[in-house]
Amino acid sequence: MEITQNQLEAHNDRASKAHQQSFNFIAATQQRVEEVISKLISFQVAIPSWALGTGGTRFGRFSGGGEPRSLDEKLADIGLLHRLNQSSGAASLHIPWDVPQDYAAIRQQAQHYNLRFDAMNSNTFQDQPDQAHSYKFGSLHHADPAVRKQAVEHNIEVIRQGIELGSDTLSIWLADGSCFPGQLNFRKAFQRTLESLQEIYAALPEHWKVFVEYKAFEPNFYSTTIGDWGQSLLFANKLGPKAFTLVDLGHHLPNANIEQIVSLLLMEEKLGGFHFNDSKYGDDDLTAGSIKPYQLFLIFNELVEGLDARGLDHATGLGWMIDASHNVKDPLEDLLQSVDAIMLAYAQALLVDRDALTAAQDNNDVTLCQEILQDAFRTDLRPVVREARLRAGGAANPVGLYRELQIRQQLISERGLKTVATGL
Ligand code: PSV
Ligand code: MN
Ligand code: MN
Question: What share of the chain has pLDDT > 70, as a percent?
Answer without folding.
Answer: 99
